[in-house]
Amino acid sequence: MSIQDAGGASELATLPGHDAGEPVEAAKVIQGRSPWRLAYERLRRDRAAVVSAAVILIIVACAIGAPVFAAITGHGVNEQFRHNGLSVEGFPVAPGSHFLLGTDDQGRDLLVRIAYGARPSLLVGVVTSAITVTFGAIMGLMAGYFGRVVDTVISRIIDVTLSIPFLLFAVALAAVSGGGSLWLVIVVLSIFGWSSVARIVRGQVFSIREREYIEAARSLGASPWRIMFIDIVPNVIAQVIVYASLLIPLSIVAEATLSYLTIGVQPPTADWGAMIASSQAVYTVAWWDLVFPGVALLITTLAFNIFGDGVRDAFDPRADRLFV
Amino acid sequence: METAAAATSATPSTDVLLRLTDVVKHFPVRSSSLFRRTAGAVHAVDGVSLEVRRGETLGLVGETGCGKSTLARCITRLYEVTSGTVEFDGADISRLTASQMRPYRREMQMIFQDPYGSLNPRRRVGSIIGDPFAIHGIASGQDRKRRVQEAMELVGLNPEHYNRFPAEFSGGQRQRIGIARALALRPKLVICDEPVSALDVSIQAQVINLLSDLQRELDLTYIFIAHDLSVVRHVSDRVAVMYLGKVGEIGPSEDIYQKGRHPYTQALLSAVPVPDPKQMQQRARIVLVGDVPSPLDPPSGCRFHPRCPKARDRCVTEDPPLVSRLGDPEIHAAACHFPVEVGEDISLSTPQISESERVIEEGLVGNA
Fold first, then answer.
1. Which end of chain B is more exposed for a tag (fewer CB within 10 A), N or C?
2. What domains are there in chain A, each with its CATH number?
3. What is the distance of C-alpha B163 from the center of its chain?
4. ipTM of the prediction
5. Rg, chain A, Cα only
6. Digits of tens for pLDDT over chain A (324 positions)?
7. Cα angle vertex B43, ends B42, B49, to 5°?
8. What span, in angstroms and rounded, lies between the C-alpha atoms of A319 and A310?
9. How far is A243 from chain B (nearest CA, A)?
10. pTM of the predicted model, to two decimals?
């Protein structure tokens, strides 16, 4: 990099035009720390966020490494242990040395199923957030930047999607498409999720659009797409990321809800919501069937929520100035 | 408006870089967002005709809301003009499409008022100054970087600060970044929209000197918008005074300051502070009553009549043309039926029009 040239720097330091008090650092690459870098550094210092990130990583590792649980215990995820997995009366077996977290109403190993059950939750959480946020941000960007007719049309679509009862729509869609599936869950959650992202982005873009640097770009002859993606997106992306990180736990809970209502993954696939649903028949004698999947869901959503809060604080340093 | 055109076309047209003819910009005001109806229009610019000659600096002064910035944005086509034409270098650019406009965008640039608002906080300075090269596909990669650093050097910035963010610079340095961006493509016309009014006084002088150095070096033509008359006097060859979307008076800088013909010009000049308390006390200040009338419904006749100390009945009914008055040279034109003589003290005049036509501040009347 030619800007490392020290001779040039000392020459420039003597230029008469420099404003007073300008630091001139010679023989050193001068690289401003980007807002991303600053946000990352703030996130690193946030202990709650770091801990929750570690928890999230462990959950992700469990989901990916679910077959390892199956291999170690020797219990397949859908394998029913009719002889030692169910009591004589046909009730689930309590946690013990053979089944660490007990068995469910079908005599399957709860530990292995909880590990596998993390997969649909995380998949739906991440994929739905990604789709929702990308689509919502693009719609909000267009509504906010072009305004007028585009804005009116997009805003009315948002109003309509927000006024449709979400659960009723999901049940109806499952009935029409002949049973639920994971993809149905993702589609339903995305259809209802994008509108709030679009609203947030639209509002932001409305205010950014009036800034002088947008006028400057227009007077230079920049195209609307260039202005949207080079000048506006970097200013709204932080908010979008914060929203996305808070949307993941919401989607996970929504997925569990839909699976509980049998709209989501179909048996015998392991899923936390479906496990909670099937525990209803036996929880009076087998509390572990209800508690362990519930705790798994709780820990996951809590970790994502705390991490999402950390991301928001990292992007909005004014928040921590209030308390420090 | 023919008289106005006659007054401004006195100079040979060959060295005219920019000619505005009867430029009008109205902003329609709509009542509600659901059922859009046009309820009226803000007459931001209402028939401005003027010329800017190659190499000169035209100062544009007037109070807030008089349409200076709107006019600037009509010239650079950030706003579409409602009617009238903008001729740049002999070609009418007021009806061009965005793609037809692109080559002209290289030749005219703006420097903005707010050094904080005019630079994208999320982008590095090198990328901001590199924008003109990127948008017009002139240079990329190392070539662009070299040109950006040249531009930074030109305005007195350290080219090594290429990778910094706007937040790491002071107000004056930020304005230099804005100037570097505007001058990167070596435009012919630069419109400075209050380039120093957001800066500290000590920095103002530096930036103004930089602008005049660059004008000499790069053969620039400036339109310099300001509400600070002393700054405008320092930089301008000619000055145009705007009031409520119209040019009230235009002429060589010294003429305007020595023998301003329009009572509004006089009022503006009397408001400029003098760095001598004794002189300041002795000087008669012309205090205008009220605010600028609403541009939604501008006054009839001469737009200044409700606040003018010299107003007569004719001012209420008849819009005065912008022509030279009281034997002034043709390049000094004023839109006033009763122009001010040199030495006349208009702070003592009283308007002779019916009270319903005047702006009367109740508080002031009560105290008097």
1. C
2. 6-31 (no CATH), 37-322 (1.10.3720.10)
3. 34
4. 0.79
5. 26
6. 343 443 334 434 444 444 444 444 444 556 667 777 888 888 888 888 899 999 999 999 988 988 888 888 888 777 777 777 777 777 887 788 778 888 888 878 888 888 998 888 889 888 999 999 999 999 999 999 998 899 999 999 999 988 888 888 888 888 887 777 888 888 888 888 898 899 989 999 988 888 889 989 988 888 888 998 888 988 888 888 888 888 888 888 888 888 888 887 877 888 888 888 888 888 888 888 889 999 999 999 999 989 988 888 887 755 444 443
7. 155
8. 11
9. 19
10. 0.76
List Cβ<8 Å contacts ≥24 apart for A177-182: A179/A266, A180/A258, A180/A259, A180/A262, A180/A263, A180/A264, A180/A265, A180/A266, A181/A264, A181/A265, A181/A266, A182/A120, A182/A123, A182/A124, A182/A264, A182/A265
Q: Residue type at B3? A: T
Q: Which of residues 167-226 of A touch B (CB under 8 A)?
A: 211-213, 215-223, 226
Q: For residue B53, give Cα distances in angstroms to B195, B221, B273.
A: 21, 7, 31
Say whether the peptide bond before residue A268 is cis (omega within 30 degrees of 0).
Answer: yes
With beta carbons less than 8 A apart as the criterion, state whether A290 and A92 touch: no
Alpha-carbon distance of B272 to B260, in angstroms, equals 14
What is the residue whose two structure tokens read 């005047």? Answer: B358
A235 vs A201, A225, A227, B141, B348, CA distance in Å?
A: 10, 15, 11, 24, 55
- The DSSP symbol for B94 reads T
Q: How near does any CA of chain A get to the CA of B274, in Å?
A: 27
**Nearest-angstrom CA–CA distance, B318 and A45:** 71
Would you say A272 and A114 are in contact if contact means Cβ atoms under 8 Å apart? Answer: yes
Q: Which of A1, A19, A211 to mutate to test the interface with B (most CBs of B within 10 A)?
A: A19
- Are the Cβ atoms of B135 and A21 closer than 8 angstroms? no
Which residue shows structure tokens 């004794």? B278
What burial letters (b/e) apply to B216-227, b meaning 16+ CB within 10 Å? eeeebbbbbbbb
Output phi, psi for A103, to 5 deg. Answer: -125, 170
Q: Are A129 and A251 in contact (CB under 8 A)?
A: yes
